[in-house]
Amino acid sequence: MGAAPQMSPDARVAEFRKTFSRAETEVGRVIVGHEQVIRKVLTALFSGGHVLVEGVPGLGKTLMIKTSADALGISFKRIQFTPDLMPSDIIGTQVLTESNGGREFSFRPGPIFAHMILGDEINRATPKTQSAVLEAMEEHQVTVFGETYKLDVPFIVLATQNPIELEGTYPLPEAQMDRFLFKVVMTSPKPDELREIMKRTTGAHMPVTQSIFEPSVAAKQIEALKTLVREVIVAEPLERYAIAIVAACTPNGPGAVPEVSQYLRFGPSPRGLQAIILCSKVNALLDGRVSVSYDDIDDAVVPSLRHRLLRNFQAEAENVSTESILEQVMKRVKRPRT
Amino acid sequence: MTKPVELLGQAHQRLALIAAARAAVLWIIPALAALVLAGLFDRIGALTWGRHGYELADGFSSGLRIAMVIAGIVMLAAGAIRGWLAWRRIDFVSAAGRVDEAVGGHQEVLTLASLSDPQHPLTEERGALFPVLWGHVSTLLASFDPARAFGLELGEPLGRSSILAAAAIVLVALATLAMVRPVTPDQIVAGKLVELARDIGNTPAGNGPAQEIIAATERVEASKLPPEKKLQQLADLTNQLKQQQQQEKPPPPGKAPQQQSAKNRSGSSTGGSGTGKGQAKSAEGNGNGGGGKSQGAGNGSGSGTGKGSGHDQNSPQDANANQNKNQNQKANQQLAALQDQIAKAQAQIQADQAKNPGPKNQPGGKDQGSAYKPDKTGNQRLASADQSGKGGNKMTQPGNGGGQNPNGPKPGNKNATTPGGTQGDTHLGEFPAPVAYQHFYQPGEHGPTLSIHDTRYVLFRLPEAIASANGGKLMLDTSGPRATTPYVNVPLNESHPLEVDPNEQQLVPPRYRDLIR
User: CA–CA separation, B395 vs B387, rounded Å?
Assistant: First the structure.
């Protein structure tokens, strides 16, 4: 796989599909259900983005993320966010060490230095700590005592957030929410899924995930696949369609739909458009195509934009969700007439 | 090997053509409907409202026809413009989008077209995966046929166009219905006059008079024109026709053939000579109130010389002469018929006036215009426009100077050999011989020019009964106006105390004028 760039384009596309499918299969050995969540997590990985996973406790958020890292053969670190967590606890700090009869400061990397980071219950940390993580997410580097340290690639942060028990939490500000490529919501399993979960977790043999990559080359292979994603072609009419969707979500802007102007305070930033396009490209590759289709864009809209829409008081009072607003947007925005 | 770009180009051309046709068709049907309706408007009118005795208001028919022609042309132009715009609106990429939908290409065809548009090839944006895309599109288009995939399918625009056309037709029909009105009798007569005038206009010599007749008819037909003006117009028209008829009469026998007619003849020629002699007999008449005698005598002689009396039966000139003769004969017939119609029109106007005397014509009213105005005796006479009675009426007085009336023998001329009889000029105790001459010539009939115009008495026969139109019963018509002035055919006594203006014209009840034959 190290010679991926020398492969033919057709072979690269086929390799991407195969790799993605194997990763989904390996994660699915442990995680029951949640196929769309797993797909979105892997999509964010190959797109170079981060994912905010929201769900009530006990749904397997942490297990799913850890299993994904195991399946890809990349390093994984878990950070449990608490109110007393400090930024240095995440990014690392200089410590005084003795060596060769002398003392010197040496950098001790924090848990942020890994390919896949699980920020569990990120809304329980203080904004100061949250911002430290979010800076690393955006810059892919950290600066400690004047020295900059590059983070490993691939680098993906999967933060979880508990929508209940909000007392004593620090909800992520909009600017920080905007840095997540997707926000996926884990829902309660269905009865047949529960039965399967019961079997897998209470039986004698626990399912084990096999890595699809050799740990030594996994990062390179993932980076090669990320390069392929960026090469997927988007036609000009489809670009206009994605732009129209984003514009329609901007309250009181040109092309805004009435529901948006009624229920939203702010719309998505350009990062929302980037997320839509990147997700669409992955969707196209997964379908064996090298060009984005309208369906690819439609599939990417909700996970890409749902956390970027800031509802107003009326929407919260009427319990209008961002998903329902996006649904109205999708109905109203017409595909460019071809 | 499929060539996607060429195939997309063919699809582009076909889709542009279809789009243009569909856009243009929307306006073509209403445009054609408007033009056909404008062309057949008169015939449709004759078959519908015309058959039931209605007509359209003045100028509405021609205005509506012009409007429909303009609307048709405008719609044709709109259809052409829409078609052209639709043609231009279909570009290469949008056509590829249609192809993509047809083959289910998940926008791969569209993406390829956006990067391979011959007008704007984006070669730098193709990337490393473009060959994969090309291969996919080639596979998709392997069995694609633009002509089969994109049918013309004009049903939907034709349906919408038909609805539009039907709406336009209904609109025109409603407008026509609103403007239709019953035809007045004088308009019927006017229409016949125009038809006859047009027939006359088809002859070589009748074009000029026909135009004048049509113009005069239109003036007469104008509803706002006062009745006496209409009568005046018709009288002028009658005189004009008489002059026309006289001009077209063949030269009298004994008169030399004209020089021009023999100009191109060959052969021996003999001079011709002729003399004409006429003598006006003494005229004597009685004039009430004026009373007078006049005597006039005159001699006239004429001679003419000419050459070229040669005659060639086989010459083309002779054939032309025969043709001209036939044409003249036909023209005479038409002129006679036209005079008949004009007389009917005059009678109709008088009848209308008698039935519907306007406020201006009321006795004692302030009449500013000319109208029939009752005099002291209750008789109607033509009053002049200024109510002075001095102007306007320039009728020749009977017995007032013979020889001035070119229309025939003068009253009191007993020796006149007019086949028309006594012309109503009778004396006391003499009962006028009812000579059955016909004043209204039938087409093709010939006879001397007679006119009851300016005559004092008219002999007519009242019908015994008038057949009912629908009931089949015979009954006397007592609904019509009755003359207040005795219209007996017995001449008045010379010493009759009745004060009657010698210029009075005894009017025949108009409704009977048509019956005098």
Answer: 16
What sections of chain A are H helices per DSSP? Answer: 9-30, 35-47, 61-72, 88-91, 127-139, 174-177, 191-202, 218-231, 236-248, 258-263, 270-286, 294-305, 313-317, 322-332
Do B68 and A196 meet the contact criterion of CB atoms below 8 Å apart?
no
Picking from B374, B280, B262, the residue whose alpha carbon sits closest to that of residue B321 is: B262
Contact residues, chain A, for B133 at CB < 8 Å: 233, 290-291
User: Which residue do the tokens 């006397």 mark?
Assistant: B476
Structure tokens at A52: 């905010």
Give B66 to chain A, closest Cα distance, Å. Answer: 41
B329: its two tokens: 């004969």
Given an 8 Å threshold on Cβ–Cβ distance, is B93 in contact with A236? yes
pLDDT of B85 = 92
pTM passes above 0.95: no
Separation of alpha carbons A259 and B387, rounded Å: 85
Please check whether residue B371 is in contact with residue B228, taking contact to mean a CB–CB distance below 8 angstroms: yes
Closest-CA residue in chain B for A7? B128
Q: Are B189 and B341 in contact (CB under 8 A)?
A: yes
> A234, B100: Cβ pair inside 8 Å?
no
Nearest to A15 by CA among A292, A286, A293, A300: A286
d(CA B373, CA B392): 14
Residues in chain B, overall count: 517
Q: Is the dihedral of CA A12, A13, A14, A16 positive or negative?
A: positive
At residue A7, φ and ψ (nearest 5 deg) are -70, 155
- The dihedral through the CA atoms of B41, B46, B47, B50 has a sign that is positive
Looking at mean pLDDT, say which of A123-132, B286-295, B312-321 comes out highest. A123-132
Place of tokens 């006479």: B381
Q: Distance between CA atoms of A302 and B131, rounded to whole angstroms?
A: 32
At A94, is the secondary structure helix, strand, or coil?
strand
Interface size A-B, in CB pairs within 8 Å, comes to 70
What pLDDT score does B195 carry? Answer: 75
Distance CA B109, CA B111 (A): 5
Q: Which residues of A149-159 are buried (b: 16+ CB within 10 A; e: fewer)?
A: bebeebbbbbb
Q: CB–CB of A307/A177 below 8 Å? A: yes
Which of A242, A293, A231, A312 is closest to A270 using CA atoms? Answer: A242
Residue A226 · residue A154 · CB < 8 Å: yes
pLDDT of residue A305: 94
Judge whether B372 and B228 are in contact, CB under 8 Å: yes
Could you say which of B100, B112, B132 has the minimum Cβ distance to residue A9?
A: B132
ipTM of the complex: 0.83
Q: To the nearest whole angstrom, how far is the Cα of B20 from the nearest Cα of chain A?
A: 16
B138 touches A: beta carbon within 8 Å: no
Which residue in the block uniquely carries the two structure tokens 């796989």?
A1
Are A251 and A260 in contact by the 8 Å Cβ rule? The answer is yes
Q: Which of B334, B300, B295 is nearest to B412 (CA)?
A: B295
**Closest Cα in chain B, distance from residue A118 (Å):** 34
Task: Give CA separation, B261 vs A42, A204, B120, B204, B255, in Å.
Answer: 115, 139, 83, 17, 13
The encoded tokens of residue B430 equal: 């003499």
Establish if A240 touches chain B: CB-CB under 8 angstroms.
Answer: no
Cα first-last separation, chain B: 96
CB-closest option in B108, B127, B128 to A289: B108
3-state secondary structure of A150: strand
Which tens digit of pLDDT belongs to each residue from B87-123?
Answer: 888 888 888 888 888 888 888 888 888 888 877 777 7
Element (H, E) at A96: strand A92-99
Average pLDDT over residues B407-420: 41
Contact A234, A285 (CB under 8 A): no
